[in-house]
Amino acid sequence: MHAFRLSKSLILSITLHVMFFAALFTTMAFEVKQPPIIINLAKNPGNDKKIVQAALIDKRAVDLANQRRVAEEKLQQEKILEQQRIVELAQQEAERAKQALELAAALKAQQQAMLEQVKQEKAKKIQEQAKLEQQLQMKQQIAQQQHLVKQQKAAALKAQHDRIVAEHHTMLEDEIERYRAEFAAAIEENRVLSAVFAKNIRCKLKIMLMPDGSILNIKVLESSGNVAYDEMSAKAVYKSAPFPMPQDQELYKQLREVILSFKNGEQ
Amino acid sequence: MSFKKFATAVIVSGVAFGLVGCTASKNRNASNEYTDSNGVNTASNFYGEVLSPEQELALLNQKVVHFAYDDSRLTQQDERVLNVHAKYMLDHPNISLRIKGHTDERGGREYNIALGERRAQTVGRFLETKGVPSNRLSEVSYGKEQPISLESNDAAWAENRRAELEYGEIG
Amino acid sequence: MKYSRFLLIFIALYSSVAMAKPLYIEITGGQNIGIPIAVAPFSSVVPNDPIERAVEVENISAIIKNDLQNSGHFKTLSVANDANLPRSSVDVKPGFWKNYGAENLLIGSIIPKGNGVYDVSFQLIDIYQDKKPPLLNVRFHNRTPAQFRALAHFISDMIFKKLTGVRGFFSTRIAYITVERFKNETVHTLTVADADGYNDKPVVSANYPLMSPRWSPDGKKIAFVSFRGGRSSINAVSLDTGKIEMLTRFPGINGAPAWSPDGKKLALVLSKDGAPKLYVLDLISRDLRQLTSGGAIDTEPFWHPDGQSILFTSNRGGKPQIYRVLLQTSEVTRVTFNGNYNVTPSLTPDGKQLIMLHQSEKGAYNIAVQDLSSGKLKIITKANLDESPTLAPNGMMVLYGTRETDQNVLGAVTLDGKFRMRLPVQDGNVKEPAWSPFLVEG
User: Is C231 close to B115, i.e. CB distance below 8 A?
Assistant: First the structure.
């Protein structure tokens, strides 16, 4: 649970840091973006008209005057332009400076802010850490408690389970005993004893029973040494089929494999 | 008394007894009865009792002696009978006797053969003590193979426990 | 939380399946009824053949049925000779036979081949494993009706062996003495018959007693005691030729001949030197060795199957009991301690059980069996005057002499005493049975 929470805050702080550093990087590394220079020609709108009215005068003088005028105008214009330019430049400079200052201030402010933020973050983080730790401790405690409770619950559950199993087992055992007695009775009723065999003769058979009590197979586990005796023992089993079988699957599973030990008992 | 005198007495009495003995045997050869020179019947010397001729014949005709269960001893009556037969054999040297021992039907067959032999032997030994030479006696046991009575009761069994005398001729 | 609970249940379930051990049952009881077998009359293939109609057809299955029933170990069920009689194992309807109480079914047929010979075939079917091939499926070729009886006994042996694992005695023979009393004479006859008492043939006939018949181990001779000439003698008759050889005729008792297991020696009883003693006669060299001594009665020798010792009856202790003498050392030890009268010893082929004639506390003479390892004695006959026990070569049955309505007859009883019957031999007095060894079929 702890790791889970931590990872979330970590991701967040990382992201923020990245963003801020990215911002820093981008704003500091490159040239300040200049606002575009807009020449507002609309300040001298009459220029176009004057040039058009002074058409037919001493051509050469006029031309010269014109030329001079043009040149002077040009010069003036250039001067104006230059002045403008200078002014603009100065303005730009001022702007620039202003901007630079602003930027610097902003930057500083930003940095301050960032620092603050970092500080805050740090503090916050410390707080958070503390909080987290506290929370963690609490969590641990709770978890411990819960664990205890869970253990107890599990123990109680297990005890209950065991009890149920034991009860079930006893019930099962009783049922198995009942079936064992029925199987034995059925086989003994169908089994032919014969004095032909020695008193201490014995054999072991394993039978597999189907759910309906019919015989799946019979196998000789330990022969008596006399095949006829083994066969007679198997015959008693064949004669007794189908055996009574329970409906209950679990009980059936306990009864489906039977080992029979045949002895001559008291003769 | 001197030795000489004693010896003479012994010799004289010995001769006297010998003469008496000769006289006695002479008498036995002459008749069937033991009589001494005085004519007194001395068969009782053999039997130990006095028997009339009829009694003797009756006993002689009895050729079976009986025994108790699991027993081969002779009773006094048996001995009376056998006495007569012994004398008869001594009186008739050309006669041989076969003694057949029997048992009742109870028990193992071959074991009863052995028991029957005991009975035959008892009779035979008795006759021998009465002077009958053993080469004129033969014994055989039939065990339970030749019963007289075929019933299965005490009376039958008592009857079957016996020794039989069978006379034959020698040579 | 849910997971752990599921896990628990799952584990519990799985373990309950994995730990399901097989159910263990001890079976000790059952029914003492004899192995149930239905014996069907052998069918004939040609119903109109007069031979088939003859008794022979019935006889084979009847002889088999008798053999098995009289062994005391089978419960035979009759089968009607009707249209429902199965002809072969494929015709068998298990349900019918199960209801009838049969566990096994014997069917057979007799097929004429012409010229008076027949093929006889039979099948022994296990009703409860009818899917499998028959337990026995045999065909005998070219037999004459004269051979049917022996063949039936042979089939009985095969069935007995198959269903019990023990060799049957149905092809063995018995010898016994008959006594016929006429007005002027008594005739004693040494007779040999099949183990079921049928098919009897006289071997030696005389007007003097004959006793103690004993089969040689090869089944070819019978030793016996004769009283020819008013004395006892031991003789041996060859069954092939009828020739009689005299073996001993000493003064006194010549009795109780007993063949050694290898057939080369004869133990016997002679009293020529005094009391009846055991001797061993070497049949080849004719050497005679005295085995016991003393003044008591020693008689009725019986060889231990290992040939190393002889059991015998003796009253050296006062009353007749059974003793054993070692041939190597002549050392004698007492064997019976129950009661006051134990005679006529014989042993089972495994040497573990002693059969004898025993007088009970009530005074009755009965056949008894003593377990030699435990010393426990069990009386297996119930009349009063039993005698002469003889054991079948497979150790399963005792033949003995007994009295019935003032006649000597033969009885048969299983070694545990549970099944008793009278042997149907001829009328008249029959005594001293002797069971042959297993005979090699020619």
Answer: no
A107 and A217 in a single domain? The answer is no
Higher pLDDT pick, C266 / C85? C266
CA distance C79 to C106: 10
- Domain final residue, candidates A69, A103, A125: A125
Share of chain C above pLDDT 90, in %: 75
Closest to A262 (Cα-Cα) out of A208, A210, A226: A226
Specify the range with the lowest mean pLDDT, choosing from A52-66, A151-165, B152-166, C16-30: A52-66
Determine whether the interchain pair B113/C344 forms a contact, defined as Cβ–Cβ distance below 8 Å. no
Whether residue A236 lies within 8 A of chain C, CB to CB, comes out as: yes
For every residue of C154-210, DSSP letters joined together read HHHHHHHHHHHSS---TT-EEEEEEEEE-SS-EEEEEEEEETTS-S-EEEEEESS-E
Name the DSSP class of C231. S
- Compute the mean pLDDT over every residue in chain C, rounded to the nearest whole number: 91
pLDDT digits (tens, 9 = 90+) for A63-119: 777 777 777 777 777 777 777 777 777 777 777 777 777 777 777 777 787 777 778
> Strand C104-114 vs strand C35-39: parallel, antiparallel, or unpaired?
parallel
Q: A187 contacts in C (CB within 8 Å)? A: 25, 27
- Say if the Cβ atoms of C8 and A158 lie within 8 Å: yes
Q: Which residues 57-116 of chain A have a CB within 8 Å of chain C?
A: none
* pTM of the predicted structure, to 2 decimals: 0.74
Chain A residues touching residue C17 (CB < 8 angstroms)? 253
**How far is CA A196 from its chain centroid?**
77
Question: Residue C185's closest chain B neighbor by CA?
Answer: B146
Contact list, A242 vs chain C (CB under 8 Å) = none
Nearest CB to C365 within list B106, B110, B139: B106
The stretch C71-93 carries a mean pLDDT of 85
C202 Cβ contact partners less than 8 Å away, ≥ 6 residues apart: C189, C190, C191
Residue that is last in its domain, among A125, A147, A174: A125
pLDDT band at A6 (very low <50, low <70, confident <90, very high): low
Alpha helices in chain A (DSSP H): 2-29, 47-53, 59-190, 227-240, 249-255
For C177-215, the pLDDT digits (tens) are 999 999 999 999 999 999 998 889 999 999 999 999 999
At residue C83, the pLDDT reads: 65
Distance (Å, whole) CA C256 – CA C303: 12
Residue A97, domain extent: 2-125
Residue of A nearest to C418 (CA): A195
* pLDDT confidence of residue A267: 44
CATH code of domain C35-164: 3.40.50.10070
Do A118 and A210 belong to one domain? no
Q: What is the CATH number of the domain that holds A246?
A: 3.30.1150.10
Q: What domains can be seen in chain B, in order of their start residue?
A: 1-41 (no CATH), 51-169 (3.30.1330.60)
A66 occurs within a structural domain: yes
Note whether A191 contacts C73, CB cutoff 8 Å.
no
In words, the CATH class of domain C173-435 is mainly beta
Which residues of chain B lie closer than 8 angstroms to C406, CB-CB? 150-152
- The structural domains of chain C, with segments of one domain joined by +, span 35-164, 173-435
Residue of A176, A194, A224, A261 to mutate for C, most C C-beta atoms under 10 A: A194
Cβ within 8 Å, pair A265-C163:
no
d(CA C142, CA C115): 10
Q: Note whether residue A25 is domain-resident.
A: yes
User: Quick check: C20 and A191 CB within 8 A?
Assistant: no
Nearest to C26 among A235, A255, A261 (CB): A261
Minimal CA separation from C178 to chain B, in Å:
12
Query: A161 in a domain, yes or no?
Result: no
- Cβ A169 vs Cβ A182: under 8 Å: no
Using a CB–CB cutoff of 8 Å, tell me whether C17 touches chain A: yes
Interchain contact, C211 vs B110, CB within 8 Å: yes
Per the structure, the count of domains in chain A is: 2
Touching check for A169 and chain C: CB below 8 Å?
Answer: no
Strand locations in B15-136 (E):
64-66, 95-102
